[in-house]
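USER: Write out one fold?

ASSISTANT:
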Amino acid sequence: MPPRNTYDSFTGAASFDVHIYFDPEDGEEVKYAENLRERIIKEFQELETYKMHYKAIGPHPIAMFEVDIANPAQFGAFVPWLAIHHGPLSVLVHPNTDDDLRGHTQNAMWMGEKLRLNLSVLEEIKKMKGSGDQPTAA
């Protein structure tokens, strides 16, 4: 039987974001995060890996960097790898849908310690989308 197209594209989500958090006051965590990011860039060249944010941004309560996953094959390779290699860092994996609040909460997966997101940012985005404006979450 040929593989179904569910192996080629996500159902119900355009893509997935992975947010990898670190304490910017903890030198060892910062170094671990910087090294992990460099390793991701080398080993997963097809993934979009963004810059380090050394302070809270958007709904994210502490420093982090983001990796975008475009398809199930990337997800299947990267997420299990990250489960083994995230070390002391917390990781949020969430789908990108038309509901940022639900994506970051009910539909989210965590590795390590679950952090409390600034949901007011996402609630405001949801209100703005309801009014016709189209902002995007980090």
User: Anything to note?
Assistant: The first strand starts at residue 15 and ends at 21. The beta strands are 15-21, 48-49, 64-69, 90-96, 109-111. The chain has a mean pLDDT of 91. The two ends are 39 Å apart (CA to CA).
